[in-house]
Amino acid sequence: MTYTTQMNAARQGIITKEMEAVAAKEQMDVQKLRQLVAEGKVAIPANKLHTCLEANGIGSMLKTKINVNLGTSRDWKDLDMELEKVNDAVKMGAESIMDLSSFGDTQKFRRKLTSECPAIIGTVPIYDAVVYYHKPLKEITSEEWINIVEMHAKDGVDFMTIHVGINKNTAKRFKENKRLTNIVSRGGSIIFAWMEMTGQENPFYEHYDRILDICQQYDVTMSLGDACRPGCIADAGDISQIEELVTLGELTKRAWKKDVQVIIEGPGHMPLNQIEANMKIQQTVCQGAPFYVLGPLVTDIAPGYDHITAAIGGAIAATYGASFLCYVTPAEHLRLPDVNDVKEGIIASKIAAHAADIAKGIKGAADWDYEMSTARKNLDWEEMFRLCIDPEKARRYRAEAKPEKEDTCSMCGNFCAVKNMNRILDGKIVNIYDE
């Protein structure tokens, strides 16, 4: 039997090697996973040409995955640094790398990723079109936009963000309902500007079936971009965001008819009290397709600390249905992140994802915490370091303030509650000042 995409295989009852790999990682029955892929509730982004991929699943009943955005810009174009970030991200457990390069030889970098990197690779063709054609935005033709999508598919990327939900109707509604921060999506702003300057329909919307055919041929997962994601909490949940989401729901059905896997992109900036409802609306409108969120950032006032604002929102979003978190670094809103920013962003996002997996009851999630708590009770520092989400930092912090006695830390010393409870329950004497 043959198949075109993971979804097509699942619908035929075929178990692919990618499904087997994902089922093993998730401790899930492979037939159950196959059914979720067939229904579109799980996506396994796996371009047929990305031969070094170590497959991961994104969606319902699976562990929350994280994506790391990387890539060059006009002001920071060091490819070696970007590759260092990629390698560090993979070592730290990022399941997905998204190349957002907007300057230099983008194809060379992209092909290097798909030939060497085992993580899921995503791109945003809209950015690359501007770089590749090297001409005024309004002079790029509809055909050229589509050709870039095909180029990325041939280069082996596993998923692409396509800003297809902002068409003439949604753009008109956006202009009639002014926002505080307008459109903050880079791709969304580019295609909106192109539509305004040319008077033409969004080519990704107008030629959506052609794009689906490309995705079907190479098994590229569609990440339906949220051009109208809110860029501040004042714009959260407004008519532009919701109307685009409804459009994405319609486009999801069209993709599934061609057996093309879909991920839905979501906010953005959003206050805490709106997150749960937003996740439920997406699940309803998009029929359970995996939801991929940037944050959400729950306040606008923390430049330099937006990895924290995003982790707060991400944990809540994933608890109520999001299955894919795009990391946010301390450099968000300020600059291109450096290697340390990337690490801080990954750790914050992984904490949020894991916290949500505990809340969702994902199989095995709480076992990690149980092991850590056991090590703490036993004052087994080496085991604690082994189990840490960031062992290097934990070990460094302890070394920087060595305690007088190895079985305590410099915070409590002989006042250590754990040590003293272990002693008293073992029938020993506790003499804090005499020890």
How is this fold's topology laid out?
Blueprint: H1 6-12, H2 17-26, H3 30-39, E1 42-43, E2 58-59, E3 65-70, H4 79-91, E4 96-99, H5 106-116, E5 120-123, H6 125-133, H7 142-154, E6 159-162, H8 168-176, H9 186-198, H10 203-206, H11 208-218, E7 221-224, H12 239-257, E8 262-266, H13 272-285, E9 291-294, H14 306-319, E10 324-326, H15 339-360, H16 365-377, H17 381-387, H18 391-400, H19 417-425
Parallel strand pairs: 3-4, 3-10, 4-5, 5-6, 6-7, 7-8, 8-9, 9-10
Antiparallel strand pairs: 1-2
Structure description:
The protein has 435 residues and is α/β, with parallel strands linked by helices. Helices cover 50% and strands 9% of the residues. The chain is built from 19 helices and 10 strands. Strands 3-4-5-6-7-8-9-10 form an 8-stranded parallel β-barrel, surrounded by 6 helices. A two-stranded antiparallel sheet has the order 1-2. Strand 8 (262-266), helix 13 and strand 9 form a beta-alpha-beta unit. Helix 4 (79-91) packs parallel to helix 15, helix 7 (142-154) packs parallel to helix 11 and helix 8 runs antiparallel to helix 12. The chain is globular and about 85 Å long. The termini are far apart. The model has no long low-confidence stretch (mean pLDDT 94).
